């Protein structure tokens, strides 16, 4: 048995299909299938059970999985040791993040990390859902709530704030807003109720608004709707500096606090490379939230 066989085994276990594993490995599905069959013959055990839903690990595959993951960590550690240049990070790292963080925070933070580590390739995957680190969809993920299950390590990154906001053009032609009750006369912008993937994103319990008139599963799309003068919504304070003309509304009555959490696979805690990157990412996010929220506070409020 060699590492290349285990690498293919891990890819199929995570993708649960030959074609999905092949895309990640840049191999055709037939080649992946032959390599798995060869590994099964070498071990004298079936590693997968094929069904209409895909390839699921057999009992023998379940037993092999932790050993393959440890081998993966060992090879990654050797690569880190040999490829580092004067303490710099290198190679490819993928971060999963909710789209608000991915759109308004990570571009600046990752740019600074890249400047300090020219050999590092950072990939940001922005999806409005929770990432599956066990399937290695990402090396680490940022979430808006702390997970309570799975073989994970979790670190709080930073608190952040959200406020009601609207564009000045919308406010100039709409009924005035002095209390939360006045929001009932306005078009509200928010999440699609049945597509809210985390309870921390259910913001409208904090207001007296009754109906969301425009909705999206994306925080950045909601901000674009607000910037277009379509209505009022709850937005990240750190996003307001990117939206000229958007101002906070009822800031003394509606201001939410949430947190970002960094999630890593438990086996990755031994990786110095991932730990160093996580430290740089965390510090960068904390600094950027403080800077942008300060700018948002200085940009002014809607008149009562």
Automatic annotation (TrEMBL):
InterPro entries: LysR_HTH_N, LysR_subst-bd, WH-like_DNA-bd_sf, WH_DNA-bd_sf
UniProt key word Transcription regulation: yes
Lineage top rank: taxon: Bacteria
One Pfam entry name: HTH_1
The HTH lysR-type domain, residue ranges: 1-58
Keyword Transcription regulation (UniProt): yes
Keywords: DNA-binding, Transcription, Transcription regulation
CDD domains noted in UniProt: PBP2_LTTR_substrate
UniProt GO MF annotations: DNA-binding transcription factor activity; transcription cis-regulatory region binding
Similarity comment: Belongs to the LysR transcriptional regulatory family.
Name of the protein in question: LysR family transcriptional regulator
Organism: Thioclava atlantica
């Amino acid at each position: 048995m060699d590492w290349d066989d285990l690498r293919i085994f891990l890819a199929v276990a995570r993708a649960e299909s030959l074609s999905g594993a092949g895309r990640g490995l840049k191999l055709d599905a037939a080649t992946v299938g032959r390599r798995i069959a060869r590994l099964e013959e070498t071990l004298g055990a079936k590693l997968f059970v094929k069904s209409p839903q895909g390839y699921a690990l057999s009992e023998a595959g379940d037993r092999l999985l932790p050993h393959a993951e440890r081998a993966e960590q060992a090879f990654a550690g050797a690569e880190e040791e040999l490829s580092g240049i004067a303490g710099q990070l290198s190679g490819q790292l993928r971060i999963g993040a909710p789209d608000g963080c991915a759109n308004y925070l990570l571009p600046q933070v990752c740019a600074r990390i890249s400047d300090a580590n020219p050999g590092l390739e950072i990939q940001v995957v922005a999806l409005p859902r929770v990432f599956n680190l066990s399937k290695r969809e990402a090396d680490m993920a940022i979430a808006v709530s702390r997970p309570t299950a799975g073989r994970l390590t979790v670190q709080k990154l930073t608190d952040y704030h959200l406020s009601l906001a609207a564009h000045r053009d919308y406010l100039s032609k709409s009924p005035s807003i002095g209390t939360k009750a006045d929001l009932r006369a306005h078009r509200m912008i928010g999440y699609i109720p049945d597509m809210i993937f985390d309870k921390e994103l259910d913001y409208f319990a904090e207001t007296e608004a009754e109906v969301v008139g425009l909705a999206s599963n994306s925080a950045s799309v909601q901000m674009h709707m607000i910037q277009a003068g379509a209505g009022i919504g709850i937005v990240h304070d750190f996003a307001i500096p990117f939206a000229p003309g958007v101002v906070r509304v009822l800031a003394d009555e509606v201001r939410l606090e949430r947190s970002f959490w960094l999630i890593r696979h438990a086996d990755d805690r031994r990786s110095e490379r991932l730990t160093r990157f996580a430290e740089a990412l965390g510090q960068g996010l904390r600094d950027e939230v403080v800077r942008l929220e300060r700018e948002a506070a200085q940009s002014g409020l809607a008149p009562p």
